[in-house]
Predict the structure.
Amino acid sequence: MTPQIIITALICLLLGGAAAWFAFNAQTKSKKSHILAEAEKEAEAIKKDKLLEVKEKFISLKSDLDKETNERNAKLQSQEAKAKQQEMLLAQRQDELSKKNNELNAVRENLNNQLEIVAQKKVDLDRVHKMEIERLEALSGLSAEEVKERLAQSLRDEAKTSAAAYINEVVEEAKMTAGKEAKKIIVQSIQRVATETAIENAISVFQIDSDELKGRIIGREGRNIRALEAATGIEIIVDDTPEAIILSGFDPVRREIARLSLHQLVQDGRIHPARIEEVVHKVRKQVEEEIVETGKRTTIDLGIHGLHPDLIRMIGRMKYRSSYGQNLLQHSRETANLCAIMASELGLNPKKAKRAGLLHDIGKVPDDEPELPHAILGAKLADKYKEKPDIVNAIAAHHDEEEMTTLLAPIVQVCDAISGARPGARREIVEAYIKRLNDLEQLALSYPGVLKTYAIQAGRELRVIVGAEKITDAETESLSAEIAKKIQDEMTYPGQVKITVIRETRAVAFAK
């Protein structure tokens, strides 16, 4: 190729590149202007939207402000109306007060005028009275003071004569009726403090809703009723009596424990041997707490303070003890009140007398009764718990076991006799019956290995519970024979006594 052709080709290439560059530049400028135009349109649209939003918010705020302004104006108008109404009421009241003041002023003026008239009349009356006295003095020849003195002397003489006659009449009447009135006072005192006659019995009746519960209480093959009898020492009699179960036992505490345990078991619905033992244990604690509460309530009712807690517990146990069929707590309360009344009549300390009367039979309460009269035992207990010597002597001497050294002793003795001698208050048979059953239990309890003893069926059966780890099955037979022989040799009883020795073996394990 020639150089000219090459130069021409180069020139053509350069011109083509320049033309392409100018075309691209023109196209780029066109796109930029188009994008700028669209951006300006979009910005203008956004600006218009924002302006509209601002205008709407402004209109809304203005509407809220107008509404709030209107509400405030309405409240102000309402308050102004109330203020105007109150102002009118105050004006009316002021007018009424002004009228009343005017009326009061008129009444006061009228009253002052009447007082002036009365004062003037009083002056006139005094003048006339003085003139009359002067005229009477002139007629009688005596002054007014002399007349008053003679009249007073005459009245005194007449009063003395009447008083002497009245005194003589009263004294004669008192002499005639002294014995009768004394008896009347004593009878009224006894009637005022006498409690109801309470004869203890040996059974309690537990009411049930339906006879269907009897089967659940008996349990499969009688296991529930046996567990209940073994735990409480009370004979459970389930017979044809409708909606009732009979609890038989001479000890009122055991009967109460059995009754409350049955009540809880029936309410709970779970009746089986393990549950029975758990409930009986819990109820026994509740009864002990009730005994303490009864003792506290009794001392508070009688106004006796400062007793030892053990004495308070013994007083509570009196609720479940009897003396010849008479409830011991009622008897002690009655004796305490009688002692206080009689001590007051004799000018002695009624609080001390009441204290001695309440504690006089405390020796009948302990379960482990030694071979001592209850009066001596009660005195030892009172002395042990820091009671004063005159209280101790009154307790010890109320059955003449010891010599009386204070005036409280005969008072306690007399009041004890009054409380116990009322017709129907006591019954000898019950006391002997309870003592025989208690002796039965204590006799069997004296043998080694015996844990519990319960006399049931009115003393015709003695159940003896022994420890399985202390006595074997073979030894239980010989034990029952030994107890039976000892009862035959040492006790007097009607009919025969069945001795049942119960030995249970229990295996206990804990799942952890």
